[in-house]
Amino acid sequence: MHKEMDVAKRAKVIEWLKTEVVDNVSRLFKSLWEGSSLKVMDSLASLVVSCYILGRRLGISYAELDASITDKLKKHKQEGHQLEDWYQDISTLEEHMRKR
User: Fold this and answer.
1) Once rounded to an integer, what is the mean pLDDT over residues 61-77?
2) pTM, whole model, 2 decimals?
């Protein structure tokens, strides 16, 4: 019985985290509409935190997620992503991730 409750609790936490991600996206869009830089930054930070924790609850370590992000950035750079061509956003983020 205890194991079943643990599985149910874990599933409930994952569902809750999924709603947190959606809520944080909603807050981000509202912040953008309001034009508040502080609210935008807070919403983005909350979204990133929720994604990292959701990944952990799904069995992905923070280090694995970081590595996957780095791999994604390299792939975008190799494929000539438009944001890289226009603003070098991919390279800048890749450099930030490497320095952490």
Assistant:
1) 96
2) 0.87
